[in-house]
Design brief:
heterodimer; A: about 280 residues; mainly alpha; MetI-like fold; disordered C terminus; B: about 270 residues; Rossmann fold; six-stranded mixed β-sheet; four-stranded antiparallel β-sheet; 8 helices; 10 strands; Nitrate ABC transporter ATP-binding protein (chain B); ATP hydrolysis activity (chain B); ABC_transporter_ATP-bind (chain B)
Chain lengths: ~280, ~270
């Protein structure tokens, strides 16, 4: 290898490193940029704080109300998480059932779709009548809104097992349960984890919807109280805290996905590292 | 004379009810214990249907299928299968893929935990036989198509099946890889002597590997002729270029052309 080609290889590696650094920094730059533009626009057009507060006003409000923000976010996080865990358990079982039995699929699917089309905000009053305002309606709304994507994805993963593979196993005397355990479930895992990313974010939506309708704590409740007092900066502080929690939960879901189903996305993150063919 | 290992007697197969497609009509064939039989025919003649009937994956519309002296009425558990598509599980490495049947088939399933070492050695020996030693811990996507197909063959063989069903297992490979795998297949058969039914549309492959080549007519499929291949084993690839070998291939090709012409007049 000549000195010249060594240099150009060096330069290429350096360029790749720069690009990676940029990719890592980009989410922060974009977020900070958005807040900067927001701040500038509020100041330039002299927008009133009760219409659109500036990020600086929101930050001030966050500092001032840090304790209620923290306790209420914690309450929301808890209800969301409990609802989400229920959705995972229920969604996984129902997905396996629907994916492995045509009869269950035919029987249940229309009902599921009808159910999923009902706006969950309309269900909250019923849940309040059953369980009283507070913890359980929020948990159940989070659950109801987030189990559907899990069911659909798991069912798809199981129903699309290659027929030849099914034949190989059946010709070995495998029972249907063997086929699901050995092939169907592992195969459905990438679909399952992809659905978790959707489910966790909509679970937040569910919790907060319920909290704004009937609750005595939670970030939704806090925003409702704040807006009734025209404390718009605090409402926005609640929104931002919710967004941050959503991103954190999403990140947790992605991390678990990458750890467990790396085989499904091999080499896609960085085509230069892909082996074989 | 011992009764044949696989006996197919007057079997018809129709898909999709009374008005459906007739895939097989009155097909009969016998395969002896430890015999290597190739089934060739024009495409869509029901070769793959035949395979699924023999392994009991589907019940025939008419007729009987007898394997090892018993009528087949559900999936057999003594069969190994390999297809054109290697269908390895991408989340398992090669050795775990090969050992999959041991987790399903009795009595291995019961003994697997206690005798894991023995079984693993068995899988490694098989991988060595097909030239995949050193690739045990690799994942399927790290292997070439030919190597995946070798692993798929190992998976079909690991539980020592008495019946091996191969549905165009070399069909998607390039010529050189395919010829390599013919020799792998021959070595495996000589080492284990299972009964093999190989479905293929490659006449050279059929003649090179099989004791007997069966020819099927176009749909609805029927066995219309058979040709015994006289060469002793082990056979060598050079033999495929000899005049006598070529003559057998040509003879088979002529019969298949006749079968296809017959179809044209039959239908109208």
């Amino acid at each position: 290898m000549s000195a010249r080609s060594a240099r150009s290889a060096e330069a290429l590696a350096e360029a790749a490193r720069r690009r990676r650094r940029l990719e890592n920094a980009l989410p922060w730059l974009v977020t900070i940029g958005m807040f900067a533009v927001w701040e500038a626009a509020v100041r330039a057009f002299d927008i009133q704080p009760f219409i659109l507060p500036a990020p600086s006003a929101i930050a001030e409000s966050m500092v001032k109300w840090w304790y209620p923000l923290m306790t209420n976010s914690w309450a929301t996080l808890l209800t969301t998480f409990v609802g989400f865990i229920m959705a995972v358990g229920f969604g996984l079982s129902l997905g396996v059932l629907i994916g492995s039995s045509v009869l269950v699929y035919r029987g249940l699917y229309p009902l599921l779709i009808a159910f999923n089309s009902v706006p969950k905000v309309a269900v909250v009053p019923i849940l309040v009548i059953w369980f009283g305002a507070g913890f359980w309606p929020a948990v159940l709304t989070a659950f109801l809104i987030s189990f559907f994507p899990i069911v659909v994805n798991v069912a798809t993963g199981i129903a699309t097992v290659e027929p030849e593979l099914r034949d190989v196993l059946r010709a070995l005397g495998a029972r249907p349960i063997d086929i699901i355990m050995k092939v169907g479930l592992p195969r459905a895992m990438p679909y399952f984890f992809a659905s978790l990313k959707v489910a966790i974010t909509v679970a937040f939506v569910g919790s907060i919807i319920s909290e704004t309708v009937a609750a005595n704590e939670g970030i939704g409740h806090l925003m409702l109280v704040a807006s009734s007092r025209f404390d718009v900066p605090l409402v926005f502080a609640g929104l931002i805290v919710t967004g941050v929690m959503g991103v954190l939960m999403y990140w947790v879901a992605v991390t678990i996905e990458e750890r467990t189903t790396g085989w499904a996305t091999r080499g896609q993150n960085d085509p230069r590292l892909a082996t074989g063919g | 004379m011992t009764p044949p290992f696989v006996q197919i007697d007057g079997v018809s197969m129709r898909y999709g009810g009374v008005e459906g497609t007739l895939a097989l009509r009155d097909a009969s064939l016998d395969v002896g214990d430890g015999e290597f039989v190739a089934v060739v025919g024009p495409s869509g003649c029901g070769k793959s249907t035949l395979m699924r009937l023999v392994t009991g994956l589907w019940p025939p519309t008419e007729g009987t299928v007898i394997v090892d002296g018993a009528e087949v009425d559900g999936p057999l558990s003594i069969a190994g299968m390999a297809f054109q598509n290697p269908t390895l599980l991408p989340w398992r490495n090669i050795i775990d893929n090969v050992m999959l049947p041991l987790e399903v088939v009795q009595p291995h399933r019961r003994q697997l935990r206690a005798q894991r070492g023995t079984y693993e050695r068995r899988a490694r020996d098989l991988l060595k036989l097909v030239g995949l030693d050193g690739f045990e811990a690799k994942f399927p996507w790290q292997l070439s198509g030919g190597m995946q197909q070798r692993a798929s063959l190992c998976r079909a063989l690991v539980h020592d099946p008495r019946l091996l069903m191969l549905d165009e297992p070399f069909g998607a490979l390039d010529v050189f890889t395919r010829e390599d795998l013919w020799d792998v297949m021959q070595a495996v058969w000589l080492a284990k002597k299972p009964t093999v039914i190989l479905v293929t549309h490659d006449l050279k492959e059929a003649v090179y590997l099989a004791d007997r080549v069966l020819i099927m007519s176009s749909r609805p499929g029927r066995i219309i002729a058979e040709r015994r291949v006289p060469y002793p084993r082990p056979r060598r690839l050079e033999q495929t270029y000899e005049a006598e070998f070529q003559a057998i291939v040509h003879e088979l090709r002529d019969r298949i052309s006749e079968a296809r012409k017959g179809e044209a007049t039959d239908v109208r």
